Amino acid sequence: MLRSFILALLAGAVVFAQPTQPPKPDDLPKKDAPAGKDPPAPTSDFRALTVAPAHAAIPALKYELLPRPCDRKPGNAALGYHRAYMLRPTWPGDPKEAAKLNEILIAWEETPVDKLPLVEVKKYLASHAQSFRALDAGALADRCDWDLAGKLSVNNIDLLLAEVQTFRELARFQVLRIRVNLAENDFDEAVRNIQTGVRLGKDVGEGPTLIHSLVGIAIVSIFHGRVEQLIQRPDSPNMYWALTTLPRPMIDPRPSLEGETRLFDNLFPNAKALEKGPVSAERASAVLEEMLTAFNSMGKPDDSKVGLGGLGLAGYVALNAPAARKQLETLGWPAATLEKMPPAQVIALRAITIYRAISDDQLKCFSLPYPDARAEIAKLRERAEKLKTDAGDPIVTAFTLSVRAFEKVFEAHARMNRRIAMLRAVEAIRLHAAANDGKLPKTLAEVKLVPIPDDPNTLKPFDFAVDGNKFTLTGLPPAGEKPDMINCMKYEVTLRAK
Question: pTM for the complete prediction?
Fold first, then answer.
């Protein structure tokens, strides 16, 4: 696949940066499959929790999931995160020792919190002390500047992918740190360490590319999973207000989307000249050839290239210029201005105009409620397909691929924000039970102490059902869609006595 300047189209980025950790097999409802057949696919992202009633903390914001502004200090968080990675213990160079250490870490990650070998785990984590101090300091910095705005280019995209991966490694050891806190029922320290992880994820997610956005969502979701673990501990604090005071949306999508536009300008530095008005035929041909060269230089040997179907540049221009001129008129360019432009400029300008139109259509969707945004995305998908078909231009085809990447990012944001809303609702029900002798509400409308959020995906109340000391809270799929692990979320919560 062409390694487009739209970074999230890199196959690795989309695969490794899924925003939520899938539930373990033991967390899924058991269904027997007929002999010789695979079990049916899960119909929801299912989480089983066991919690006790819990009153709100006093003061209400004793626990928060991001460091408070008044606690932050002047500095650049990005430097702290990079320093934390550099100061981590060196991974064993011997393959056998490395594999053995990884097996130990996996065992600690999968062991129930109450059965952690605390002496061994704390001894190992002590070797990360300098790294943790740098990570904590980064999370308390008052800004985060990745210093990449003018530096993204064809030549360093692969380096960026490796760099962003390092933050997932920091998150892994931070999670182990929190598991020790929970084993010791040290909720204050656990929340502080969750804060650090959430701030790391938010800062990464608001970096200048879609890769940053996807990895940041993944990291934030990992630490929201630690909140799920925390509220299941005996005597755990209620986290309703901690979840409620998080930003909405949790991660601002605009920096990464705007960063992709900046990347476009870096990759095609002479494109803006064509948007200002007619240029010479020589200049236009040079810019068009520059665009084709930039695309082809991004590909690995086994990647497909932006080819001209056997035509030379002159033949390609002659064949496509008439249709490009007509298409630009429909995109708002005055016919009189287009008549003054050489054919190569018209060809390149069509691709540039289509890219900018698609980018704006993507960005505007984040300002809409989820159902309206989905409708707009469907229109965008149809529009991009028509533009690609009408153009018949390999450059335009490559630009329209960005719609697929955008949809992945949009849905990742939506799932993360929905999960936060559902967990808020769970905590609101814990508040209600604490105030009503441990009794569950029969309906969500009975919860009066605090507002219960509606499902941000449907703009309606979550589906709620009570059965004895259990309740289920479900975020249903959009109307007409079959439920699956992407569009349907479900909590099954058992309420134990305080």
Answer: 0.88
Q: Is 393 exposed, middle or buried (0-12, 13-18, 19+ CB in 10 A)?
A: buried
pLDDT tens digits for 170-195?
999 999 999 999 999 999 999 999 99
Task: Name residues whose C-beta falls within 8 Å of residue 328's C-beta, 6 or more positions apart in sequence.
Answer: 338, 346, 349, 350, 353
Which candidate, 321, 314, 266, 309, places its Cα nearest to that of 289? 314
Measured CA distances, 498 to 237, 429, 431, 495 (Å): 12, 14, 12, 9
Token match 């869609």: residue?
Answer: 481
Look at residue 491 and give its three-state secondary structure: strand
What string of DSSP letters covers 92-148?
PSSHHHHHHHHHHHHHHHHS-GGG--HHHHHHHHHTTHHHHHHHHHHHTEEE---S-
Return the number of other C-beta atoms located less than 10 Å from residue 225's C-beta.
19
CA-angle at 490, arms to 174 and 32, nearest 5°: 105
* Rounded Cα–Cα distance for residues 326 and 338 (Å): 9
81, 136, 155, 199 from 84: Cα distances, Å: 5, 9, 26, 14
φ, ψ for residue 51, nearest 5 deg: -135, 165
> What gap in Å lies between CA 207 and CA 204, rounded to an integer?
5
